[in-house]
Please model this.
Amino acid sequence: MELRINQKTYQVDAEADTPLLWVIRDDLGLTGTKYGCGLAQCGACSVLVDGNVVRSCVTPVAGVVGREVTTIEAIEVDEVGKRVVAAWVEYQVAQCGYCQSGQVMAATALLKRTPKPNDAQIAAAMVNLCRCGTYNAINAAVHELATDVATLAAPAGEIV
Amino acid sequence: MSKRHYAKAAGTLALVGLVVLVLLVWYGTRVPASALDAAGSVAPGDAALIQRGEYVARASDCVACHSLPDSPAFAGGLKMATPLGAIYATNITPDVTAGIGGYSLADFDRAIRHGVAPEGRRLYPAMPYPSYAKLSDEDIRALYAFFMQGVSPVAAANKPSEIPWPLNVRWPIALWNTLFTQPEPFAQQTTQDAVWNRGAYLVQGAGHCGSCHTPRGLAFNEKALNDSGEQFLAGALLDGWYAPSLRNDPNTGLGRWSEADIAQFLKTGRNQHAVVFGSMTEAFNNSTQFLTDADLAAIARYLKSLPGDPQRDGPPWQYQAAEASVFVSAGGHLYETRCASCHGLDGKGQAPWMPPLAGATSAMTAAAESAINISLNGSLRVVAAGVPDAYRMPAFREQLSDLEIAQVLSFVRATWGNQGGEVDAKAVATLRAHTDPASPTPILLHMR
Model:
């Protein structure tokens, strides 16, 4: 089958129900996306499909044929993704780093859909698990990005 | 009346009572006739017959109850909790002392089709002999040939039942049998074609689908054993799962399924509407996937001929898109974060791998047990053609509270046109306790 990943076209020989994560990592060697729980519970395997965050461990590969998949390897090609990564560096979010590609995907998807999320929206979207407990740093980085975007996008005179 | 008359009347009454009791005990312990009493035995080494018997054993799913995980097949030992005490499935390997190696063909027939062991002891109807009664003489002969010649003997002793005296007295079961079973084998219906009749034979007989899917009466009897009753396969609660209607009810049954959908479900464990879960996973793993395509098509034909009940089923389900605002509620937010990765924000799932919840029977039936049970305990591994499934419902027992599970299920059962209705946190708490492996009040009878 033909897959579009990071704006490249790949020919993949896989069963229809193979998890997208296995294809990305094992067949295509894009190992930035991590295997966590395999049950859509932790979010380490998050990728973007047509801009929406999905958990690739529970996404049958046949379901993404004809759609645009973005993994952590190409996230900085995206303007929003680039700023998310910069904020992650600024706030020194990562500790062991295992969950962080998924966290960056979740934050990017949130900010692309909702440039100025409120606290509730951030809490609702940033639900990936982190075994190091970097939640405070993640929270600070996303809030900074939310404010930052709002400042840039706000019409003159509006107090934000 | 004088005192003497009273004494005489009481004496007569006692005598009559004693005679009645003796007759009942005789009736309840006698060895009934078998249609195969004069049939002798089966020829040794008839490979075709043994192979046919193995197929009947697959269709009957004997292994589900008469085996323990990681133990030799058919050696028994599975514990079944009943309100009166636990009973254990028996060893049905051909071991002469521990198993059924000493059974004649007629003894075997009496056990399978009449629920009577060789010495006249009645089996508990946890053994689905009310269904197996429909099996043909020829299938019984084949099954006997398989168990005697195709199965290796295992010297595992049977465990005695834990039901205390006098509740463990078995002869009254004979009266239950007289009231609630039909001893005649399946009779072809001449108004229907051969495919329909084959399907009816498999569903009513070997498949014993009614053991789970037909509602039971006060005496734990199936309310109908064939399609002459409207309650046959109309859906029932058992073992903490709601086995849905297999009749043509669009919401709670198979009304929206085609014959091809049904055959695909039984062959691969999944289709565009659903994936096997709960007790059905075991029926699929051990039994239905091994049936021939022709037999599965026959089952589908037969099930599609059973009319639904619009009054019980309600207005037919239609998909309704959900507004983004619904995900703000507690249940909606839980759905978005815990369920949507697999089942989709639109509730349509990723069929056939992950089932839709929009229009799912578990979200349409008034009984919420199946939805609660799978949310608490997750799904068993579905193994199709030797390959385990890639996707599995996780258990949320340790992650979500009773209230949270009630909230998310209430959301699912009221969104996308679903009409199942609210789930109460108390119902979740009850099922959580009953499905806890360490529970002192375990789920009743394993009926498979």
